[in-house]
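Illustration 12: Blue (type 1) copper domain-containing protein.
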Amino acid sequence: MHLLTYMLPLLAFLAGCGGGEQQPQSQETQAQTQEIRTIDIIGVDQMKYVVKEEGKLLGTAETIKTSGGDSYLLLQTIEATPGEKLRIRLTTVSDLPATAMGHNWVLLKLGIDPASFTKEAMKAKSNEYIPEGRTDDVIAHTGLAGGGETVEVTVTVPEKTGDYNYLCTFPGHFAAGMKGKLVVQ
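Figure caption equivalent — predicted structure in token form:
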């Protein structure tokens, strides 16, 4: 019994020490991995990106009323800081079939002409309207979403400040105004 009195505290101490193989993440590392700002964007039949309410660092101005009577705010800019992580979640609200009304969200590299990009994208139906020969011009993109579908992409905002174009490459949507700027400052 006397030996057991000395062994129990020693065993408890050794069990509490563990193998020392894994180091817990610092609070800063945990915060960095968890800090992803989500922006919920809605693609509507009027070929516009809209949001339900103005959020932090979203530039919205005019209101769009859908054929169903719902009102949304037109999304024209997204402001972000270099290196910030953004999750873009795009939902298409439409009663039309996906072949007639689908939306995606494509972020182009700085300086890429969105009009010439979308001209080539119209020919890329088999690749969800992302031209295979121009993938180096794209920072990130979602898949194509038909009515009631949601797609998303997580992107790290470029380090270089400037205005980056984002757009929908479904035929005719860019020309109709389904576009905006990611303002990195």
